[in-house]
């Protein structure tokens, strides 16, 4: 069910497929949907990151700009005034992220750090400072310099699928064949990445749960996640505490569960993603995720179904 890969990063390789790797989220933002503001101070963010490593995180994903629903990113324009709305500049993003990156690497020089950014300038500075991975929610689309930057940096790259930008998500029409759309568009983004000089063995793809998908569209995508193996790249799944989980677990109370009450639903979705072939899961709650993933990995290991091999 889950093919194996060697993911080439900036300075090392990660083995993917034998067990699920856990990517712990470190948000250094005032407005992220779940923990915005909790770790805005660098020392608190470093302490949190080190705790996630102690709990079993294989990768830390550090982000300095929120891409929650409704956020304005990448030069979005005000539809009335026609002027750019305020966004987090590369300078501000680096002011938030760099002390955390440097603090973690001082304490744990071998830590594998991913930087959640769509800006080439941030990618260049953070990889130069020791980050191994650039996790771009726009799959290289929101900054025309990002593809060439990642190619030159020789880092690992996560290409995530998104429909539109966060400020548009609530008004997007339902997509009748979302799974095929995601597969087609991720194939296109991966091709662009390779054409721009990013080596295929440096690429991981992410279907982007919740990113431009209506609540009900996330479940067919989760159920068909293994279909994306046909693209020939490792899969990352990030379902942790997303709104579609809040809608589901809040059904009995006829009210969406807030992010703080979505842990058990998040673990269920994470396990489902692993059983459908995710190699890496991005989570806020590392310790319970490590334990749940270990059980899911045992189920995969006991399965007699053959691996879905990447195309030759």
Q: Can you describe what's shown?
A:
An eight-stranded parallel sheet has the order 8-7-6-5-4-3-10-9. A two-stranded antiparallel sheet has the order 1-2. The protein starts with a strand and ends in a 10-residue tail after the last helix. Helix 1 crosses helix 2 and helix 2 (90-107) runs parallel beside helix 3. The protein is built from nine helices and ten strands. The chain is globular. It has helices at 42-54, 90-107, 120-128, 146-153, 178-195, 218-223, 243-249, 263-275, 286-302; strands at 5-8, 13-16, 21-27, 59-63, 113-116, 133-136, 156-160, 203-206, 236-237, 280-283. The protein is an alpha/beta fold.
CATH architectural label = Alpha-Beta Barrel
List low-pLDDT spans.
Answer: 77-86
How would you classify the quaternary structure?
single chain
Q: Could you give the order of strands across the largest sheet? A: 8-7-6-5-4-3-10-9
Number of domains: 1
Helix fraction bin: 25-40%
N-to-C series of helices and strands: EEEHEHEHEHEHEHEHHEH
- How large is the radius of gyration? 18 Å
Question: How many β-strand stretches?
Answer: 10
Biggest sheet architecture: 8 strands, parallel
Shape, per Cα inertia axes: globular
* CATH superfamily membership: Dihydropteroate synthase-like
Judged by helices, strands and strand pairing, the structural class is alpha/beta
Strand proportion, as a percent range, falls in: 5-15%
- CATH topology description: TIM Barrel
The CATH class label is Alpha Beta
């Amino acid at each position: 069910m889950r093919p194996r890969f060697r993911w080439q990063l900036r300075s090392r390789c990660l083995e993917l497929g034998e067990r699920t790797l856990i990517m712990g989220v470190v948000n250094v933002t005032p407005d992220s949907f779940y923990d915005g503001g909790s770790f805005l101070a660098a020392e608190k963010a470093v302490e949190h990151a080190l705790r996630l490593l102690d709990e079993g995180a294989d990768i830390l994903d550090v982000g300095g700009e929120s891409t929650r629903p409704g956020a304005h990113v990448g030069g979005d324009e005000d539809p009335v005034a026609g002027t750019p709305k305020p966004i987090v500049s590369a300078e501000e993003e680096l002011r938030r992220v760099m002390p955390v990156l440097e603090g973690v690497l001082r304490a744990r020089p071998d830590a594998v750090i991913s930087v959640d950014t769509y800006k080439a300038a941030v990618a260049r500075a953070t990889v130069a400072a020791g980050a191994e991975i650039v996790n771009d929610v726009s799959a290289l689309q929101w900054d025309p310099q990002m593809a060439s930057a990642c190619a030159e940096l020789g880092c690992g790259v996560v290409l995530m699928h998104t429909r539109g930008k966060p400020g548009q998500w609530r008004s997007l029409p339902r997509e009748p064949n979302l799974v095929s759309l995601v597969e087609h568009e991720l194939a296109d983004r991966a091709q662009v990445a390779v054409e721009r000089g990013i080596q295929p063995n440096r690429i991981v793809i992410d279907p982007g749960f919740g990113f431009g998908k209506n609540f009900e569209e996330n479940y067919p995508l989760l159920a068909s996640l293994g279909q994306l193996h046909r693209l020939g790249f490792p899969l990352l799944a990030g379902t942790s505490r997303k709104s579609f989980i809040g809608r589901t677990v809040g059904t009995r109370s006829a009210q969406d569960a807030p992010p703080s009450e979505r842990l058990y639903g998040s673990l269920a979705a994470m396990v489902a993603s692993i059983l459908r072939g995710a190699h890496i899961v991005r989570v806020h709650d590392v310790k319970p995720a490590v334990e749940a993933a270990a059980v899911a990995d045992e189920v995969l290991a006991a399965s007699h179904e053959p691996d879905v091999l990447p195309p030759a």
